[in-house]
Structures are given as C-alpha cells and as structure tokens.
C-alpha cells in the first residue's frame, strides 16, 4: 500500500487519508466587486498538473489534521508533506 | 421515570454471539467489552505552560506530546489524539465530575473539554494471536519494535475508526465509536475465526 507521511503521525497507510484537492487557493478579497468569470475561476477552475502538484490532504483516520503535500501526479510519489502555512521553507518530511 | 433507566452496553445486541464465539475460552485470542468507561476529550494549546499546568494539576499526570499514553496513580490516563487533542480515560464513571473540574481549572485559558463517554466503548483484545487479528483490518505496523507497550494511535479496522492502545505485551485496547461497536466486534470475530474455533 502507498504510504503517506503525516507531519504529526509519521508514515501511514494511504487508506487512513483523504485528498482535499489543490492547495494554496486563496479566497479573493472584496468578492462583491468580482466579475462572474473571476468568481467562477475561484470556485470551479483547478489546475490539472502533469508532474509536481500541491495538494491538501486530511489524515481522516488518524490525528484528523489537514496538511499540504507536493505530489507527482505521474509517478504518485509524495515529494514532501508539511503543515499548512509552513510554506516552502517549513518542516519537510521526505517521501518514501 | 428517568431513575428506572438502565444503561445498556453497546454490544448488548450481539451478546449471545460473542459468548458463543468464546465457548472454548479465550485461548489464542480473547475479546471483552469494557463498557461505560469514562472518556473526556480535551483540546488546548500544548505549548501553553498555563494550560498544561492546570490540566496536570487536576489529572495528576503529564500530558503526552507524542503517540503515547500517560497514567496517573488514581487510574486516570491521557491518550495523545493529535497535536492539540487528548483523550482522558478512566475506568470509573466520573465523566461529569472530570469535565467540571477541568473546566474550572482551565477557566480563562483557550480550551475545550467535553465528556464523550456515552459515544464510545472499549474492546479489550488479548492473546498471542492478537496482532494477527488486528492486522487483518488495520494498516498499522503493530510490531512491538514500532508500536511498543505504552503507545497509542488512531487508525481504522476495516471501515471503523479506532484508537489503539497498547496496554501490555499481548493486551490491546480499542476505543470504538458506539455506533460502530457492533460492526467492529463482528469484524473482529470474523477476523479471529481461525484462532477461536
């Protein structure tokens, strides 16, 4: 089974996690002045990256915490996982 | 009429099935329900000395900061559930008192304390086959080198969310949601079938 490294619990089986889609999507400020197209972009449009993709993951059957992951969508390899907000320079955990 | 209510253990519906499964006694694998234990969920800032101090004063134990269990002399234990969450467990039915005492001690601190005793039940699993039975539905590495006595963590047993507590060499406790208790127990019996026949 694929193993995912939770920033708090360490390497665990994939079946304990659920994926929450693309990470780092920022809700637009002043949404009342936003055009329909821009609002639609925010709500519906997602990247469909081939290669390294930033995603949100949830340790559903574990510590029940959300975190971010960089995952290669071609090889399924998790490059690193890190707490949300830790960003590029935060604690990184190597993939297996 | 409320004084006539009788507490029912979550496994009451499959009591006879459970008894029938262990007619030969728990030899290689045993399963006993420890119903009505006290469970209190505690949340707060683990880095706040005031929070830790207040909790440790009430419970007389040190809150674990990793996937372990700590116990007090009075039979209370704290189980790590997440970076800012713990499960306080006690064999005595003292949920409301514990909740009140913690709330009083933590007044003014950022915290959450909830008595969740009625939402959970505990299975005590024992025997030399206990790891094999658990491993059939739980993806954790249960080898004693990785998951030694005193460790605890959350995972799943087939479709049921569980908290696994390693109590002694061949003794584990599963904290299971009440609504999943019957399912989890039947799946455990099914997994243990080859060892209890």
TrEMBL record, chain A:
GO molecular function: sarcosine oxidase activity
Domain of life: Bacteria
Pfam family, one: SoxD
GO biological process, one term: tetrahydrofolate metabolic process
Identification of the protein by name: Sarcosine oxidase delta subunit heterotetrameric
UniProtKB/TrEMBL annotation, chain B:
Cross-referenced InterPro entries: SoxG, TrmE/GcvT-like
Protein's recorded name: Sarcosine oxidase gamma subunit
Protein's organism: Pseudogulbenkiania ferrooxidans 2002
């Amino acid at each position: 089974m694929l193993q995912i490294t939770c920033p708090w619990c360490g390497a665990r089986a994939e079946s304990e996690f659920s994926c929450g889609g693309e990470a780092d999507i920022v809700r637009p400020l002043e949404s009342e002045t936003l055009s329909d197209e821009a609002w639609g972009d925010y709500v519906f449009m997602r990247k469909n990256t081939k290669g390294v993709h930033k995603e949100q993951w949830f340790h559903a059957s574990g510590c029940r915490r959300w975190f971010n992951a960089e995952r290669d969508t071609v090889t399924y390899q998790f490059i690193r996982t890190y707490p949300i907000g830790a960003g590029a320079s935060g604690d990184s955990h190597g993939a297996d | 009429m409320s004084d006539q209510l009788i507490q029912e253990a979550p496994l009451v519906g499959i009591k006879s099935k459970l008894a029938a499964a262990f007619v030969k006694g728990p030899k290689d694998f045993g399963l006993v329900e420890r119903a009505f234990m006290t469970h209190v969920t505690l949340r707060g800032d683990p880095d706040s000395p005031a929070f830790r101090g207040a909790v440790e004063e009430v419970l007389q134990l040190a809150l674990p900061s990793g996937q372990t269990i700590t116990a007090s002399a009075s039979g209370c234990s704290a189980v790590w559930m997440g970076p800012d969450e713990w499960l306080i467990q006690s064999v005595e039915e003292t949920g409301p008192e514990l909740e009140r005492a913690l709330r009083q001690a933590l007044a003014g601190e950022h915290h959450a304390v909830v008595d969740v005793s009625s939402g959970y039940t505990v299975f005590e699993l024992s025997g030399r086959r206990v790891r094999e039975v658990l491993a059939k539905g739980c993806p954790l590495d249960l080898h004693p080198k990785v998951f030694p006595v005193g460790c605890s963590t959350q995972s799943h047993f087939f479709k049921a969310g569980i908290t696994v507590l390693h109590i002694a060499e061949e003794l584990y406790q599963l904290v299971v949601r009440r609504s999943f208790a019957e399912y989890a127990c039947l799946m455990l019996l099914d997994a243990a079938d080859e060892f209890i026949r």
